[in-house]
## 1
Amino acid sequence: MMAAIIFVCSVVFLLQFFVSYCRSLIAASIKHPLSAEVQDVTGIKNSASGEDFDRVVQLLHLCPDRPEDRNGIQAIGAYFGLLGFVRSSVARLVPSLLAWTETERGQCTYFAAVTLERRIAFSRDMFAQQLES
Amino acid sequence: MPGPLVNFLWLVGILGEAAVVVCALKKGAFRRYFLLNLYMAGLMCVELGRYKILSEYGLKSTQFQYFYFYSDAVLTIFLYFALCTLYSHVFSEMKAERYVKMGAFLLLAGTALFTYAVVQQSAAKLVTHFVVELSQNLYFVGVVLTYVLWGAILKLRETRTRLIQLVLSLGIYFSLLAANYAVRNLFPQLCSVFIPLVQLCGIFLPLAWAYAFWRLPEEARLVPARLAVIPR
C-alpha cells in the first residue's frame, strides 16, 4: 500500500518537475536571437511553429553532435511528445489548453533552432581549427 | 560479465559524473556547490566499485546486492544533505541556514525511525530490507523536499537560472528513483530488471548538472513564474 502511494505521488511530481525543467531549458534559450542564416535554413522568421519541430530536429541531426546539447534536446523532444499527446487528448476538451500547447510546441521548435545555430557555430570553429593546424 | 548495454550505461554515467566536477571546476562553481560536487565525486567512486563487484560476482550475487543497496543508502543520505545546501542557497538572504540544517537532521532521523518501525515487524527481513526501505523513503522525502523547495523558488521569485535547473533536475531524479524503488517493492521478483533501470535514470542527473554548470553562467536569470505548470 505504502509503495503504491509513493509510486503514484512520485509519478505526479515527476511530471511537474519534468515540465518545469523543460520550460527552464526553453526560457534560457528564448532570448537568443536567431541569425539570418539559421532563419533562412529553418524558415523561422518571427515566431516558430510546432509543425516545424521535426524538420528542425532533422537538420540538427545533420550537424556534428555536441555532448552538452544532447541531454537538452532529448528532454525537449520528450516534452514535445508529451505536448503532442496532451494536444490530441485532453486539449480537445479544453480549448485554452490547445492554445497553450501550441505556444509551447512553437517554443520547443525555437529551442531546437537555437541548438542548431550553436552546432553550426561549433562545426565552423572545428573546421577553422583544422585549417589552422 | 555485464552485457554491452550495461557497460555502455556505466561508462556514460561515470563520464557524466566526472564531467559535472570538471565543468564546475572550470566554471568556478565547485566551492559554491561543494556538496553537490562532492556527491558526484562519491557517486563516481561508488559506480566504479559497483562495476568491479559486478564484473567479479555477477548481478544476482549476494555481494553485489549488499554493496549496491548499502552504498545506495549512504549516497541517498549524502544527496539529501546536498539538497539541504540548495535550500541554503535559496534561503540565503533570510539567514535560515541553521534552521535548515536542524530540520534536515530531524527529518532524516524521523525517516530512519519510521523505516525501522515498519521493518522491525518482520525480524527476518530486518538487515536486508532496512536499507532498501530507507532508500525508498529517503528518495520520497527527497521528492517532497524538492517540491517544497520548488514552491519556495516560485514564491520568493528566485531568478538564478543555474540554481533553478539544478533543483528541477534533482526533482526529476528523486521522482524517478522513488517511483523505481516503489515498483521494486511492489514486485520484488523483478529486482534484477530494476537495477539497470536505475542506471538508466541515474544518467540523467550528471548530464543535467554538467549542462547547468557548463552552459549557464551564475549571472544568468529567468522569470520563474514562466516555468510553473499552471501559469501565474
## 2
Amino acid sequence: MTEAVRVDEVRKSFGELEVLRGVDLVVQDHEVVCLIGASGSGKSTLLRCIDLLEEVDGGRIWVEGMEITAPGVDQNAVRRRIGIVFQAFNLFPHMTVMRNVTLAQEKALGRTSAEARAAATELLSRFGLIEKAEEYPDRLSGGQQQRVAIARALAMGPDLLLLDEVTSALDPVLVAEVLDAIRELAAGGMTMVIATHEMGFARDVANRVAFLEEGRILEEGPPEQMFSEPREEATRLFLDRIIAAGRM
Amino acid sequence: MTEPPEALPGHDRRSRLLGNRGFLISTASTIVFFTVVTVILVAAPGFDAVRESFFNLEAMKESFFGVPEEGLPGIGQAFLLNIRIFLIAEVLILILALVIAVIRSLQGPVFFPFRLIAIVYTDLFRGMPLLLVIYLFGFGLPALGIRGLSTQSEVVYATAALVLSYSAYVAEVYRAGIESVHPSQVAAARSLGLSRMQSLRFVVLPQAVRRIIPPLLNDFVSLQKDTALLAVLGVVEAARAAQIYSAYRFNYSSFVVAAFLFILMTIPLARLTDWLIARDRRRRQARGTP
C-alpha cells in the first residue's frame, strides 16, 4: 500500500485561537479514516488544510507522495485531485444540478461539454438523482443536495475525498440516504477522510478512527478497539457523552 | 422535499375581500384629494398667469418641434441626444465599474498599487459634484492641448465625465454584491480546482449581479436625468433646448415639455426596478428562509 495522505506536525491558528496544535496523520490508499471529536476539536480545520482551503501555520502535508505545503506548488492542481464535501453542501444556487456537476470538469479539467455531461449523467444516475438534473438546488431536499455535492466532487476524479460532517445539516430522516452513498464509495475503494458525529456509521465504514481533542490526535485505532476499549480516558468520556446523547 | 406552500384558501378569500373594499376607499380618497388640490390651484391668485406661461399648449407644441427658420431647436429632436448619451454611457459604466470592483476585490500584496488606484479613483469621483466634473472636463481637457484628447466635442467631454462619475458609484454597488456572496461559495469553487478568476467569473459574479440589479437600475434612472447637465457646456440637449426656447419666447412651457420627456424616459426603468424587486421577494418567500 502507498500513502494517500501524510500530515506531519500541522499547526493552524485563527488569531489567538490555536485550532490545530501539531496533528500527525497517515492515510493509506483505499483506506477510510474517520475523525471524531467534539465540535471545535479541529476536525473541519484539518480537512480544510489538506484541501489547501486554509494555509497551515506550521508542519507539512503530502498527498500521493507530493508535498502540497511546499512553496510554489500549483494549488489549483492540488485541489483538482482532492474532493471535499461540506456540511452546508455549498452547491451553486444559480446553476442547475447538471451544471453544478459539469462546470469544474470543463473549466478546470478542460473536458468538452459532452464528456462532462456524460460523466455527470453517470454519477447522477448512480446516486438516483438523474431526474433532478435540470432542477435548481433549492428545489431539492437536503439529502438530495448533499448527494449532488458528492457527485460534483467525484466528477473531478479525485484521488482522495474529504467529507466534513456531511450529515450534520440534514433532517434525521435524510441522513441514511447520504450515508448509504458514502458506504458505497468506501466499498468501491475510494480513499476518504471523514469528519463525523455519526458513531454508528464510523464503526461500520472506517478502517481506522482518530479521536481529536484540542487540536491534537489523542488516540487512533481500528473502530472495534476505539469504540469498545479506548486507551485514553478522554476518548472514553467523549464516547460516553455521545452514548448518553443517543447518537450511538 | 416540501413544496413551496400554496396560498391558503382562507387567506386568499380575505385578501380579495379586502381588495374590493380597498379599491372603493382608494378611489374615493383619490377623487377627494385631487379635487381639493385642483380647487386650491385654480383659486390661486396667479393661476391664470401660470397657466399661460407654463401650460400654454401652443408654446408646448412649438417648443417640441422647434422653429428652424428662427434658429430655435426642437426639444423632441434634442432629446434624442439625451437618449444616445444615456445608452452609450450606461454600457461604458457597466464595464468600467465592474473592472474597478474586481480590482478592489483582488487579494494579495502584489495587487496593492492597483487596489490603491481603484480606491483613490472611487473616493475622488464619488466625492466631487458631477457638475464640477463636467466643468473640469469640458474646460480643462481642451486647454491641455493634447492632440486627440483636447480636440473632442463637448458631448464627448461631458459623457466622459458622466461615465467616470457614475462608475465610481456603480463600482461600489458591484462590490457590495460581490461581498454579499457567502465565502463558502468561493471555497466550493476553489475546492473543485477552479482558479480565483474562474471562481469570480462563474460562481461569484453571476450571483452578485442578480442581487444588485435593483440598486443598479436605480442609479441608471438617476443617470438618465443627469444627461441634462450637458447643458452647462452648451450642448443642445433637451433641457438646453427648452431654455433657449424660453429665452426667445418668454414662455416656460418648454421646460414642462422637457420635464415630461424625462419622466417618460425614466418611468419604464422605474417600473422594471419595482417589478424585479417584487419578483425577487416572491421567489424568496416561495423558498422560505434560505
